Amino acid sequence: MLLPALKKTREKATSIVCLGNEKQISTAIMMYSNDNNSWLVPLRYTNLSTWPQWHHILETYDYIPANSTNPNWNEFTLPSHSIFNCAAKSPSGESQYWFGSKYGINVYFTDLLNPILFKKETSFTKPSSTVMGGDTFRGALVSWDNRNDIPNYYHVEWRHDKGANLFFADGHANWMNVTVAGQQIWY
């Protein structure tokens, strides 16, 4: 009789740890922005390669703890202590992810063809409703809709009790179900 309650408690604790990770990531992005004339961290510094990704940039410049990312970005493993590693099980059963993160930044903040372009923090009219990133299926980006130019592995992954943890342009992070998440500003 206690087993279902314990399972639910464990899942809630995992969701809270994930939310804390996303809050740390959001804070790191805000610190980067403060140090870079309000520019948010770019997807990557060059459009000639896939490395370093945004989370490697945050680690390289000490905005997040050292050893949080896998230096081999194309491997599907992360240190268990990493703030980019969510312990929640994927609804699809998928255990791999790309580019060293189970979280992504909003795909609409960057130009996939020119990933060094990004937005300024000051460009958001409603930062508390503007999704900066969150739980993603695979990869360094996250998106809301099914646009043909965005691979489905960048979509939000609903891995926390039929919801997802998201972080916003004002620095806060929050769990949301699919209905509420869809009412937020994505682009």
Short description:
By secondary structure, the protein is of the alpha+beta class.
List keywords for this structure.
globular; alpha+beta; 187 residues; single chain; 5-stranded mixed sheet
User: How much strand?
Assistant: 5-15%
Number of helices: 3
Tally of distinct domains: 1
Cα distance, first to last residue? Answer: 46 Å
Shape: globular
Low-pLDDT ranges: none
Number of strands: 5
Describe the structure.
By secondary structure, the chain is of the alpha+beta class. It has one domain (3-182). 24% of the residues lie in helices and 12% in strands. It is built from 3 helices and 5 strands, in the order ααβββββα. It has helices spanning 3-35, 54-60, 178-182; strands at 103-106, 131-135, 141-142, 163-168, 173-177. Strands 3-1-2-4-5 form a 5-stranded mixed β-sheet. The longest helix is centred in the N-terminal third of the chain and has 33 residues, at 3-35. It starts with a helix and ends in a 5-residue tail after the last helix. The model has no long low-confidence stretch (mean pLDDT 78).
